[in-house]
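Batch job 17 of 40 flagged for manual review because the log was empty.
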Amino acid sequence: MHRLDDLKQHCSDPELLPLLIAANRAALIAGSILKELYNQPHTITMKGEINLVTEADIAAEAAIIASLQEDAPYIEVMAEESAGENPTQPQGKAWIIDPLDGTTNFAHGFPLFAVSIALMENGRSIIGIIYCPLQDELFCCWQNGGSWLNGKRIRVTTTDFLVQALVATGFPYDIHARLDDVMDQLYALVPKVRDIRRAGAAAVDLAYVACGRLDGFWEMDLKPWDTAAGWLLVEEAGGKVTDFAGNQYSPFCPQILASNMALHHLLCKQLA
């Protein structure tokens, strides 16, 4: 937990700092639970034809909520496993939580998944935490405070040609109904970019854009807990986040496109 003390050196906002520490603490606690359960047999429940939930999702969510309510009991909570399928944008402050982004990866032993916690206020994310427990990578950001990875400042890439870009995407859970859209997007971008990745965890994809491992990411039909933290992480790292047409983004929007400033309009042109 020494990383929580490091935050005091970087964040000088007296109102945000205790909430930033609370979010980091909750993410680290949940991450330790996921790491402990990773190599154990899993109890899997189906929320949809290909949409899983495991005992780890439930345990991590309960731990996050308990930790946040201990540190900030006055703030509303919206968490994936308890929020329902059609969440509406909360008023005022609210924690937006994905206890295990990449559940399918986790259930199959594919070692790429994350805890995602954001604090939103009046429709804007003001704190974002993404923690990848197996890699022990803690991505952290706050409004006007920059983006950080394990205490070191991170930035998006400066790539300015699509042919030099490594980009990522994801597929919606109702892919059978959206297959034409998915294939149209791939058809538009595959010949234009250096390569495409599909890792299966939107929060991780956004964190990787923020730290320069990816040049861009797009996906449709995500939920607010998938993107609320990563949205701010990319913007505080110098990147841009919109819908496919370049319009202002919200985690309650059905499309997300995140990239550096130089590539953004080029990716919009291909996806629009």
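Reviewer: the log was empty due to a logging misconfiguration, but the result itself is present. The radius of gyration is 17 Å. Unflagging and moving on to job 18.
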